[in-house]
Design a protein that fits this description.
This protein has 338 residues and is mostly beta strands. It has one helix and 28 strands. A hairpin with a 4-residue loop joins strand 10 and strand 11. The chain starts with a helix and ends with a strand.
Amino acid sequence: MRVHQGAVAATILSLAVAAGAQNYHIVDHWKIGGQGGWDYLLSDDAAHRLYVTHNSRVEVLDSSTGKVIGAVTGLKSTHGVALNPDGKTGYISDGAGNAIVVFSRTDLSVQATVAAGTNPDGIAYEPTTKTVWAFNGRSKNVSVMNTASNTVDATVPLPGKPEFPQADGHGAVFVNIEDKNAIVKLDAASRKLVATWPLEGCESPSGMAIDRVKHRLFSVCDGGKMAIVDYETGKLLGLAAIGDSPDAAGFDQMPGVAFSSNGGDGTLSVVDATKAGFATVQTLKTARGARTMTLDALTGRVYLVTAQFGAPPAATAAAPRPRPSVLPDSFEVIVVGK
């Protein structure tokens, strides 16, 4: 049997990717302290900063050392952070405040508070229109803010409860619709919903990552699945096996791996995205509750957050499955590297 050099090279590359992906391990724990819960975090790779939503504030850390730089304060219940490419301005979705909060990245002061829909959660900056898209979980719509004037100039209805969004950089914004098991595509220029793609085999999609080279979306779902979708066609390319109760995803272009942070079983799933099978090549034990994450694409580091937990409060009709209480001053960042 004749073996082609191209096939051999491809096999070697694939094996190298798989082998390299299995080298992730916890390299540090950075204590932040304070009280209350958290949601998304975001790496500003070029500035070596880490933005961590934490109850009514956003903690800002040096992502090289873990040193706390400061915090954006005076908010009600923070969910997500988006950054303007100008290097000067950032945006926070303040869920309980029903607002988009504009802040200075120089001194972390609040510059404006802009009314949005009800309970803005995921948030994204769209570069071709220079707009911020805040996805409102309870009003099931998206508030589109003009960053030149800091005013909402459109409110786009959605078919269900939105979760995490991604922008492709060319005028399209995508978001998971949690209660419809679907992804929707929005056109930034027209401010319109242009496509809805069902996610077969994906229950309650939450976190989403993007591969802007191969035009793929990675949506993490309940039931231990990550859905991989071609965002040019809407075609479901495959389902990867991940851990329990994920809430965020990441994608690292250089090794070609996708990540899922799983709070239920306290793991980080590493998926090989270079081959059609989308095999899970590593399951790293992190910590209970570490359900959100961000990637520093310059260093390849993954950052997760969690805390220590106490007993949950008593169940009520409004909250039949209450979350366990967060122990004061136990909040921390888990640093994962190779």
